[in-house]
Design brief:
Length: 451
Amino acid sequence: MRGPCPPERLLDDHAARPRHDPLAAWREGTSFRAFATNRLLSASAQTLLQSAIAWQVWVLSHSYLQLGVLGLVRFIPALLSSLYAGALADAFDRRRIALIAEVAALACAGALWAMAAGGNASLTPIYLFTALAALAAAFENPARNAYLPQVVRLENFPNAVTITSTAQQIGFVVGPVLGGVLIGWVSVAAAYAGFLVAQLLAVAALLPVRALNPPSGRRAVSVASIREGVGFVWRNQVLLGSMSLDMFAVIFGGIQAMLPVYATSILHVGARGYGVLSSAQSIGALLMSFAMVALPPVRRAGRALLIAVTIFGLATIGFGFSRSYPLSLLLYMLTGMADQVSVIMRQTIVQLATPDELRGRVSAVSMLFISASNQVGAAESGLVAAVTSAVFSVVSGGVGCLAVAAAVAGCAPELRRYDISAALKPAPAAPEHASLPAPAEASLRRGVRGR
């Protein structure tokens, strides 16, 4: 029999386990702090803009179908350009691409503000400038997401994802609340003006960001390079499973497109209540973000992702049946908490399972899935509501979300077992005389195994 463990051995074991630092990435330097600030400001601006556009479309049309069309207007530019945008992010400076895209969004919002301030807004030009802003976002998102791993060290990357997601969620709370205040107390034109100010500040915050580990080489933008990124995702069960789970769950479980209907016709809370309701999901996500910053990183990321999507579906069903404004707020907050776990797990999985030379293209595929979930989900909700009712649209969507979670859990066992620990370990030093494969090829092999 073994004797009791000596006290000095216990102390050594305790010392070997690094203490969790909730702000490890934040302490790395100015670049990451500026990057996180950009996410806060940009998220505030984007959600403010989305709230203003959705409200204006509803006021002009009072049509469920037009709310669904708005979702398609946002999705089609991403569908047509995301894969090319991802290849571009792997071929050129990612920070510069993100800056150009953010400035382009400023121009589109300026046109929307001019129409609203002049009192001559109509659906066709609103859809046009919304589509152009969505096109700019299709180029910004993969470049920005692929740039984050270059701003922090690998061991701090999960913490960096959590911190930037927290900053983004703060923006998701501020944007709709500010939109509700400006729309309800001033005008839609004031909401567009608020976007312009926030987006200008976001551009200024991104200017000082610099990469700690800039890539040594770039690939040419070509059909072959695009096919390489898509093929990498298709062969990787962990990546394909996590992206598919998020896309189909949110397509079926989307509530956001029906919020104007619930605020005006079901819960009867008007424009001011709409602003608070719009921010409830982001408040829940923000609370969960703070909890995840304080706690050590979740290692079993795949299992956490599946559980979060299941909770999201159940809360969506409850929201659909609710006729109580306070209960609806709580349930919508719960969807935000579950969704934030899903977002952090998916972002961590996608970046850690992908080599840097493919991150732009893989991020583009991921953003295409996300755009499909948000915008096709909005279209699906609007179309189903037009044929049946808003309540049936939300409740049936929650049921569909649960079905998707069960299907992915059964079809993607590697995702269920995925653990980020192996990806965070530095690669062992190889003997000097050993013949090693090229770094990109080695990274690709690691990625295909989902580790």
